[in-house]
Amino acid sequence: xxxxxxxxxxxxxxxxxxxxxxxxxxxxxxxxxxxxxxxxxxxxxxxxxxxxxxxxxxxxxxxxxxxxxxxxxxxxxxxxxxxxxxxxxxxxxxxxxxxxxxxxxxxxxxxxxxxxxxxxxxxxxxxxxxxxxxxxxxxxxxxxxxxxxxxxxxxxxxxxxxxxxxxxxxxxxxxxxxxxxxxxxxxxxxxxxxxxxxxxxxxxxxxxxxxxxxxxxxxxxxxxxxxxxxxxxxxxxxxxxxxxxxxxxxxxxxxxxxxxxxxxxxxxxxxxxxxxxxxxxxxxxxxxxxxxxxxxxxxxxxxxxxxxxxxxxxxxxxxxxxxxxxxxxxxxxxxxxxxxxxxxxxxxxxxx
Length: 352
Prior knowledge:
It is an enzyme of class 2 (transferase). This protein has 2 domains: 6-35 and 254-347, Aspartate Aminotransferase, domain 1, CATH 3.90.1150.10; 51-250, Type I PLP-dependent aspartate aminotransferase-like (Major domain) (Aspartate Aminotransferase, domain 2, 3-Layer(aba) Sandwich), CATH 3.40.640. The chain has 11 helices and 13 strands. Helix content is 34%, strand content 16%.
């Protein structure tokens, strides 16, 4: 469904707001992997501090990212998290008819609106499993933004459907911030150079627990990378973040990320199975990311009662295309999930 609307929801609300000021809450609202960064990554970042007197030099990290995806360095732009990339795209690219596919991460639309663009929304439907309908995207769109797997729906769109959106004169932005949580990264477009106008965004903050360090990157044609780079300030990525980027795309990190992806899939299956046994709760799916989207009657009250029992979950009504009956729940280990499911049952409104 196509909608051309004003920003009637709070596009700046994010999961960290759910845990702010809630000391002791179990955080199921933020999609950053718990228990990270690992010790070897902390050591890498700590060792970089000895070089803080020098200005950051991103060449080694850029080359490492390029090698990880099998592309030349000219196709890589390092950014202060994927969120910076959305701002650069909104400010640097000369587009006139941007479209954002929702429900999804709200920063792309917020950045476009802040840059003065009039944004059209394509709203995917719950009854269709929030699956992408390429035919719903207007033919005249010269910028299309879609997540894969999508936050908050956890839907993994087929790569062929995404490629079908590409065409001459259009920038196709695919946010793959959670793709490394998918076993084998199936349906990934990172590294593809045969899709016209393709821009892939990656984040290193989710799997590696680096949200406070801010590191991500863009993969795109050299002319697009150069245009985005001109909109960046000098030295946009700090030396510790560059050291983390280089480490997180190395063989050791990739092997560990692969193991983590399989473990997340197993833990997500346990969560989804448990939610399926809770009356009045529906899980959007099939879920493929490190979080699940859940529909529950009276979700606002359920969230408040969950907080009283020590659990924070992400409200869904600040995502365009969702309503107040939705919540997003991050995947955690089985003991945490079991405790959450117990709290959820106790937090549901009485059956009529």
